[in-house]
Amino acid sequence: MRYSHFENVMSPVRMGRYLSACGGDTRKAMTLYRKNLQLSQELFTMISCFEVALRNAIDQHYTSTLGDHWLQNASASGGRFCNRKCQFTQISINEAIRKLNHSYTHSKLIAELGFGFWRYMFAKHQYSACGKTLLRILPAKPKGGLVNQNFILNRLADINDLRNRIAHHEPVCFVRGMPVKDTSYVRVHYDYVIKLFRWLCIDESALLFGLDHIEMLCDKIDAL
Known about the structure:
The chain has 224 residues and is mostly helical. It has a domain at 37-67 and 115-223. 65% of the residues lie in helices and 0% in strands. The chain has twelve helices and no strands. α2 packs across α3 (26-66), α3 crosses α9 and α9 crosses α10. The two termini are 19 Å apart.
């Protein structure tokens, strides 16, 4: 496709930073746009797999320590999340239960709650409300106090931010807010996900076999 047609479809405003990042080279600008799409697709797939793995690990842990319907019980009147400091968590659970209505099952409730909900299980008050045991789902994390509940919360927030950027069709191949080609943001967040998979004792290379070409795509973008 000629660049003029490509730009007409995607809009001159959207393509402007790609063109600037490629020094006005229209062929490279189209290639960069496509590589960014490929990179975004693979990142979103990886993060989706991680989200499922994380929520399942949290659920398995709390099912074993708090019971089969720990979420429903925690959000009920007098439950663990029935307090001002955990109010948003309680509301999120009860809204999801109401949405499911008569089709409610615990497994459907787990799937209904998003990444933002699950990362908040590591927030100070939610972590405390459930017994301060959730770090046990990360048996391979480094020993010592540096990798604590707050560290995990912050890394999950970073990953969630990347996920949301991709979901809103924001490019991930630039210095943030500038038309400068750069993959360091992606590489740092990719490393976060890999580490967390490994701390969960999940073989991410086997899980993502054939799906993870993220470093290769970053190298191709850097070489443009």
